[in-house]
Write a structure and sequence with these properties.
The protein is of the alpha/beta class. It is built from twelve helices and 15 strands.
């Protein structure tokens, strides 16, 4: 079979190599899946660079999220275990961790449902306890993680303010349902949020960016507001001033969604049931900006790494979709 392999750390377009490898053999409790679609996540770029919190042994295959097909023809969602990730024609996964694919989604949409939307749901509901009528500020609102948070925020009845970089991404954020879009390149985030909320500020901030995005968020956070720290796509990890959190009376909460898989797997499955229901009634639908063939995976991961992509880019190893 074909699989993308990383033999040394560096930029995805330079270190990912498409190779012929042996088809994996399942062990006890495992199943072999044909990969129908593999979603590209920012961690795939970090894995290539050797900058992710998990560093698999070299060589490895990136790809942490797929829509696959079982031998009896069922479509399932899976998160392949590294070092044998999803940018391959076949993967082996734990059978107990498989989740059914919502009928309302095609293969590419299904491949982008699991990690981003689970992260959004746990961040907004379990960590920030977002309430209907509150104001939610989402950074990188046109990106893969941010777009999921926008849709989930709207589904929860919140007023959603999206922050993007550039007019093209602003248009996409509006299509996703943002009530207000801020172009960080030409507008003052703090001033716009305060004006839009009558001086109150955002009740919940969803921040997958870090750096300057975090610094500006805490300047326009509401009384008893909650900042959900999801990631650091900017490359800069903030150093919060806890005295500021004290005097402004807001909370800073971290989210490492992967821990729920080991600490509370029942919650992950319950969340999937909720996401399936939301997808069935059209409240959420992954934004797929590109469907690329297997040969285009390295270039696509590089675009995600560079922050030039919108929504989700999905690799189709078989060249098609349902």
């Amino acid at each position: 079979m074909q699989a993308w392999r990383v033999h040394r750390n560096g930029e995805p377009s330079e270190v990912m190599e498409l190779e012929e490898t042996d088809r994996p053999t399942p062990g006890d409790g495992q199943v072999l899946l044909k990969v129908r679609a593999a979603n590209i996540n920012f961690p795939d770029a970090l894995l290539c660079r050797g900058q992710y919190q998990v560093r698999p042994p070299l060589p490895f295959t990136p790809g942490v999220e797929i829509c696959g097909e079982t031998e009896d023809g069922r479509r399932v969602l899976a998160t392949p275990a590294l070092p044998d990730g999803g940018f391959a024609e076949y993967v082996v996964v734990d059978e107990a961790a498989l989740l059914p694919v919502p009928d309302s989604l095609d293969d590419a949409e299904a491949a982008a449902l699991h990690i981003g939307y689970q992260t959004g749901w746990f961040g907004l509901h379990r960590r920030a306890h977002l309430q209907a009528g509150e104001t939610l500020l989402v950074h990188a609102a046109a990106g893969g993680v941010g777009s999921a948070a926008v849709q989930l925020g709207k589904a929860a009845g919140a007023t959603v303010i999206g922050v993007v970089g550039g007019p093209e991404k602003a248009a996409i954020a509006r299509e996703l349902g943002c009530d207000l879009v801020i172009d960080r390149r030409s507008e003052d985030i703090v001033a716009v949020v305060k004006e839009a909320t009558g001086g109150r500020g955002a009740d919940v901030v969803y921040d997958p960016v870090g750096g300057d995005a975090y610094a500006k968020s805490v300047k326009c956070i509401a009384f008893e507001g909650r900042v959900v720290v999801v990631g650091f796509a900017s490359g800069t990890i903030p150093t919060p001033g806890l005295n500021h959190a004290l005097v402004k009376n807001y909370s800073i909460t971290g989210l490492h969604w992967g821990l729920y898989n080991t600490k509370d797997p029942a919650a992950v499955r319950a969340c999937h049931d909720e996401l399936t229901e939301l997808a069935a009634r059209g409240a959420i639908k992954p934004l797929i900006s590109e469907r690329v063939p297997m040969a285009g995976a390295a270039r696509a991961v590089q675009r995600v790494a560079d922050g030039t992509s919108t929504g989700r880019i999905v690799v189709l190893p078989s060249g098609g979709d349902r």
